[in-house]
Structure formats: C-alpha cells, structure tokens
Design a protein that fits this description.
heterodimer, A: mainly beta, Immunoglobulin-like, 3 domains, five-stranded mixed sheet, four-stranded antiparallel sheet, about 5% helix, about 35% strand, elongated, B: mainly beta, six-stranded mixed sheet, five-stranded antiparallel sheet, 2 helices
C-alpha cells in the first residue's frame, strides 16, 4: 500500500497489559495454573499472548481471529469504527495482528480480545480491551496559506475561465468546492454555483486549478442559456476561500482569503504574437528578456508554452527563470548564463490561451456556421525572431 | 465451588515501533490467480505496481482490473485471478462507507470512495478509496457476503502503460478507463486546458509501453453552431453493427457518440450532442445493456444545481437512453428540460427511479446493476434490477 511507517514514541505509546486470571478452586484439589492473557499494543504487529493454556487447547491460524482479536479506530466522541483490516499470524501461544495500513498518527484506537469468539478459549479467560493513542509525529501544525492566485490582476474579462491557486502545503482534498464562493460586491449577493466541480491538482498537490463553470461561459450551452454568464461586465467581485478548509494535516487557515477583481468586457479575440513587444537585453548581461503580450495570458500555459531558442541555428530552449509580471501581461526570461550576442527566437506554442480561453490557434468558441477563419494545428509553434547585438563591453 | 476472577490491568510505557505493513492478509485476496489473463497483458510484472494515486476503475475479461493512476499518467492492469463463478451481493450492505473507513483505520468520513467497478465474472465489487488525512490510496473489495476486504497490492501480476502528454504538461485527472473489444480506452484531462485526450491502449497491454493518443482535443458543438473544447467526463465503449464507438458525456452534460474506427492517432474528436440531461448535471458513470432486443445506456449524474433547482429527491439521479436514439444527428432539446415527474420520454430517454441517490453505479449483468447509494449521510451498497 502507499504508505509510510508510523512511529510511536515511548511517552505517548501505551503498553497495555492485562492479566486475567481465572482460578477454579475446587475443594480439596489443587488449582490449575491460571490462564493469563496479555495484549501488547506498543508496537506493530499488535500481540495477544496467552499463557497457562490447559493441555489440549492450542492456537492456530484457522481459528476465527477476525472475530476474537480486533482493532478499532476510536473517534473524538469515543465511538468505535468497524474493525481495522489486517492479517493474523499465530505462533505458539501468541497471536499477531498486523493492520493492512499504517495507523493514523495522533488517533485513538482500541484493541479488543474476545475469547468467547474462539472455540476452545471460551470460559478460560475474560475479554480484554486496551485503548491507546498513536504518536502524533506530524510536522508542526502551521496554518496553511494561499501563496498566490493567478491571474494576479484585478481586471478580468467577463468570460474569464480559471484561477490558479497556490497553497503553502497540500490541502485536504475531496468535496472542496463548498469552501469557495464568488461574491458580487456590486449587487451585494453571492453568485450561485459558479465553479466547475472537478478537482484538478498539480502533481505536487499545491496548485489547484479552479474553473468557472465553462457551461455558463459557452454560448448556447444549457447553463449559459438558463442562468447566463457568471460575471457581469462592470461588476466588482470577490473570490473567497472559507478559512475552515484545512490542510491535509487538519489545520485550518488563519483567516479568510479573497481575491477582488472587476469584470471587464468579454474577450473573444485570439492572442496575437505578432503584436507582442520585445524589450531586448544587452549581450553579456543577465537582465531579463521582456515580452509585453499586450494582455494578461494564462499563467501556467505561458510558463509551459513560451520559451527562447538560440542562439540560432541552435534550437534548444535557453535555460533560465521564466516569470510573468505586470499582472501576467509581461513574460520575461532571466537567463541562467549571460546573454550571448546572436540571433534568437521566441517560440510560442499555439495552445497558449488568454484569460477567456482564446488560444493563438483558435478562439474559445468557433461559430461553425460562419465562413472564414483558420485554425492552426495544435502542435505548431509561432516564432518571433530577434537579435541581441554584440556590445563593445561584452566578451 | 467458587470461581474467583482476578483482573489485573496494567497500562504503561512501551517501545518505539516501526511498522512495515506488508499487507499480507487473510482478509486480502491472494495474488495467485486461478485463471490468468495472459492474452490481454504482456511483459507481466510481479510485485507492487507502486501507485502514486488510485483513481477510476474498470474491468476487462478474465479478472483484468484496470486502474487509472492520474498522478503517474498511467493505466495499470492487474490480473486479479478473480474469475468467478458469479456470487453476487446477497443483501444490501448498509453504511458500507463506515466499514471501509474502519478497515482503513479511519473514522467515518475519513475516507473518500473515488470509484466503483464490478467484476461481472465473479460479482465482486471493487472500490478505489482514499484515506484523506494522509492521502493513502487503496483498493477494497466487497464480496457476496458483504464482507469488506483489502485488495493486497504487494504481490500482484500487473502491467503499466503510460499515457503520453506533451512536454511539460501533466494529466491532472483520468476520467475513465474502459475495456473495449480490442483495446483499452482512457480519457485524460489537463488542469490547464479545457479539453481531454482520448487514449487507445492496444491489446495485449504491454508493461512499459505508451498508449496511442487517439485525439489531442475533444470538442463539443452546441446547437450545431458553437464549437468549443470540452473534456470527456465519463464514457463507455460501444459496438454497433461491427463498428466501434465511444459514447461519452461532456462536463456540460450532453451525451454524444464518437466513431473510433475512422480516427487516426492524433486526430481531433468532435462530438455533436444528441442527448441533453438538463443543465447543472455532471455525469458520473455509464454502461450499456441489452433488454428486449434493445441496447440501452445507463448513466447516473450529480446535479450540482440540486439545492436551487431540484429535479428529484436527490442531487444524484440517472436515466436510461435508447441507444438507437444516439444515432440521431440532432440534439434532443426536450431532454434538456427533463422533468423527473414524467417517467418516460422524451424519445427513449427515461428517468430511472432506482438511480435516485446513486453516487456510483456499475453493471452486474443485463438484468442487474450494483449501486453505491447515498443514505442519510452514509453509503449503502446494493443490487438493483435494471429497468
């Protein structure tokens, strides 16, 4: 299973050892040795040890240990969950139970032994229960934070599509959309059900892509027809994150998080790299190459689909740090090594989109009944050539 | 005679422990197959597939369990050896979510059931589950007696096939993995683009291979006019008159049929919506079955507009659709105004009352389905007759 071991520290772990002695004291006869049962829950596997079993009573794997030896999760109200799954192994007079998964750190469990469930043991000794708490060895429980939300600007098109939200640590996943809301500050009312309910997390589980429901942003699609678009041009909005949402460690935000923005006119035009303006660095410097894209573009796609190649004729991507600045309108590359004089090209993947989903290749919505319009192949690249001249100071 | 019972309870210290949890379990399924599925898998590995995440499930013949691993952008096929005979769930299992949470050492509510698949050859029900606190993923089974067991992944026969993505891009979600006549199909979604890739995994599934990309983009055309990218939310392979199709539903709920035979790798898939279920629905599962000489499609949906605009008693509901209706090249506009108070119509689309509150559904046979049903905040597992 996908898991890592859990440790119990000596001071938090509990060794519970119960001894049940059953003494039969018939008159004028010597009492047989008492049967003792011991539950050791201080380590995994948990162990039941029986001693002084009468002759002829043996333990073996074929006995119904799933009924006789159980481990339960105990919640904060003291309620027991159904039994933990795991495997049993009998060796001599001891029975080991190994949970199928690591026990959760910082949780209470109860181990129970019921001899009446094991043929041959009934009546020899009484039931046992031992409750213990696993060590809470998790990292310090700091409040999670929203590091950044893109687009970073405060003016978004009325047909805006998605936000990228970066968190300081992985958040608790599953049914997260109740923690998000969109408030129309112009009307003073919440916007009903604006989000697409599909959790899309990055591989490091720190970036969430939060989509407005595209069904309301698409012309002619049922949600759009029935409810209209999510954003109204000219209205002020607040994207809110409920602070009760917790990190995976179970810690809520320190306070509410929100992003304010105003809805501008809808954007139905494709990004046009031909109109982009380059601000060239000088040879020998490490100052960034800046590209004004004339409008904020999709933050994640601009990182993935735009790169510098060169000096030509080499076509490998130039190493460096890509950033979007000026409210995600300016793309810039700070090279890992100082710029060398020569010819370069900015390679733009045509799937690069603006905030409304219009890509270099095609508009977000295409009227198939209209004539004209040409769609680019999704794998193609648009090139912007530029030259960094040699400077007298440059090597 | 006098019985004397002396109880001594000692609670004290104890030692540091390091657990290894091999998961070897009587309660787990044995890895040794009764009947292998070698003709469907090649370069078979023995061991733990090493899942990063466990998502959607599907079943092929001969006990071949298909598991989507969206974090690894891969499909893993496991030869479970679970080949029957059929022993279907004998009676309803109430609060199965509590049994699952307990089995995973968590409190009720501490786990999320991601998907459910039924092995039609054995009746065994497979569930992919995430323990929330530590995002531990697992597969659990429910047998005919309603017993919940952990499917032991430590020593299984498996193959892993990757789903290629463009450089720098990642799949954030695999919305379906299904066995078809001569291939396995998978649909993947990216978090940065509003579209799906449809993958074809040719048989035999070969460990270490990469799937073919059937389509780079999926499109949806609304009302014959507005064409937009649209991700596939769920799908089912479908054969009709010797031709292969995908019947898929988009995030915006229309159901469409795509021909597969004519597609070449890398081509675009355009689906014209032919059935609308009404706005605000998110289709979850799909399957087809035959009855009275007809092919029907079952799909359950999560209506996220339920609170404001309820269509029935639950946000979870479902329909069956006459598959011949999907041959239509026009959108059924009436279906968009679905009225659940009307049992049938329009035109071969019927609300299935058994699917009210159904969070997941899968086919058991042409006469029965397995439903994971919401019941007062918990989940019940039961068999229900197909309409």
């Amino acid at each position: 299973m996908i898991s890592s071991p859990i440790r119990l520290t000596p001071n938090r772990a509990v060794l519970a050892r119960s001894l049940l002695l059953l003494c039969l004291v018939p008159a004028c006869t010597r009492a047989p040795p008492a049967v003792t049962a011991t539950l050791d829950v201080g380590q995994v596997p948990l162990r039941l040890q029986l001693q002084n079993l009468p002759r002829g009573v043996t333990l073996h794997d074929g006995q119904p240990w799933q009924e006789g030896l159980r481990l339960h999760h105990v919640n904060a109200d003291g309620q027991l969950a159904p039994p933990v799954a795991g495997s049993y192994h009998v060796e001599g007079t001891s029975v080991e139970f190994r949970p199928a998964f690591p026990l959760l750190p910082g949780h209470d469990y109860q181990c129970q032994f019921d001899p009446s469930a094991i043929p041959g043991l009934a009546g020899l000794t009484g039931p046992l229960e031992v409750q213990f708490r696993t060590e809470d060895n998790r990292e310090p429980r700091t409040h999670p934070e929203v590091i950044t939300i893109h687009p970073s600007g405060d003016l978004l098109p009325a047909n805006h599509l998605k936000f990228y939200i970066y968190f300081s640590e992985p958040m608790l996943q599953g049914d997260i959309f109740g923690f998000f809301s969109l408030f129309d500050r112009t009307t003073g009312t919440p916007v009903p059900r604006p989000f697409r309910h599909t959790e899309l997390w990055s591989s490091d589980e720190r970036r969430l892509t939060l989509w407005f429901h595209p069904g309301r942003q698409k012309t002619g699609v049922n949600l759009n027809v029935e409810l209209g678009a999510i954003l109204q041009e000219g209205h002020e909005y607040e994207l809110r994150i409920n602070p009760e949402w917790t990190s995976r460690k179970g810690v809520p935000f320190a306070g509410p998080t929100s992003k304010s923005f105003r809805a501008g006119p809808p954007d139905r035009l494709q990004p046009d790299p031909e109109s982009w303006l380059l601000e060239l660095p000088t040879a020998g410097s490490s100052t960034p190459l800046r590209c004004d894209m004339q409008e904020p573009l999709d933050w994640a796609l601009a990182h993935r689909l735009v790169q510098v190649e060169g000096p030509l004729p080499g076509s490998s991507p130039l190493a460096g740090e890509i950033m979007l600045v000026a409210d995600d309108r300016v793309w810039q590359l700070t090279p890992a090594e100082p710029w060398r004089a020569g010819d370069y090209r900015l390679a733009v993947g045509v799937l690069l989109e603006d905030l409304a989903g219009n890509s270099v290749a095609r508009p977000f919505e295409v009227d198939v009944t209209a004539t004209g319009g040409q769609e680019l192949d999704s794998d193609s690249l648009h090139y912007i050539h530029f030259t960094i001249p040699a400077s007298p100071e440059a090597p | 005679m006098k019985n004397v019972t002396l109880t001594v309870l000692t609670v004290g210290l104890l030692a540091l422990l390091v657990s290894t949890y091999p998961g070897n379990s009587e309660s787990s399924h044995a890895a040794a197959p009764k009947k292998a599925a070698p003709k469907y898998i090649d370069n078979v590995q023995l061991g733990n597939p090493g899942f990063k995440r466990i998502g959607r499930l599907g079943f092929g013949p001969d006990g071949l369990l298909l598991v989507a691993d969206p974090a690894a952008a891969a499909v893993v096929a496991i030869d479970t050896g679970d080949t029957g005979p059929v022993r279907k769930l004998a009676k309803k299992v109430t609060n199965v979510d509590e049994l699952i949470a307990g089995a995973m050492g968590a409190e009720p509510g501490g786990v999320e059931i991601i998907d459910m698949a039924v092995n039609r050859q054995s009746g065994m029900i497979y569930l992919s589950v995430q323990r929330k606190q530590d995002t531990l993923y697992a597969i659990l089974t429910v047998n005919a007696d309603g017993k919940v067991s952990v499917f032991n992944l430590e020593k299984v026969k498996y193959v892993t096939v990757s789903l290629p993505v463009s450089e720098g891009a990642t799949i954030s979600n695999i919305t379906g993995v299904e066995f078809s006549k001569n291939r396995v199909l998978a649909a993947g979604q990216c978090s940065e683009e509003f579209s799906s890739k449809i993958y074809s995994l040719p048989l035999p599934l070969t460990h270490g291979s990469a799937a073919d990309v059937y389509s780079t983009e999926t499109y949806h055309v609304a009302h014959g006019r507005w064409e937009t990218k649209a991700p596939i939310q769920s799908f089912v392979p479908y054969e009709e008159k010797g031709k292969s199709y995908i019947v898929g539903s988009f995030s915006c709920t229309p159901i469409a049929k795509f021909p597969l035979d004519d597609l070449k790798s890398g081509s675009k898939v355009k689906g014209t919506s032919v059935v609308e279920l009404g706005s605000g629905n998110r289709p979850v599962d799909m399957f087809t079955y035959k009855k009275d000489g007809k092919q029907w499609l079952i799909t359950n949906t999560d209506r996220f507009h339920h609170q404001k605009r309820p269509l029935g008693p639950s946000r979870y509901w479902g329909v069956r659709v006459d598959m011949s209706y999907l041959s239509s090249d026009k959108t059924n506009e009436e279906a968009a105004r679905r009225d659940t108070t009307s049992k049938s119509g329009p035109d071969g689309i019927e609300v299935v009352e058994q699917l009210f509150f159904a969070k997941h559904v899968d086919k058991l046979s042409d006469t029965e389905m397995v439903i994971l049903r919401v019941n007062k905040g918990h989940l019940d597992l039961e068999i229900s007759p197909l309409p």
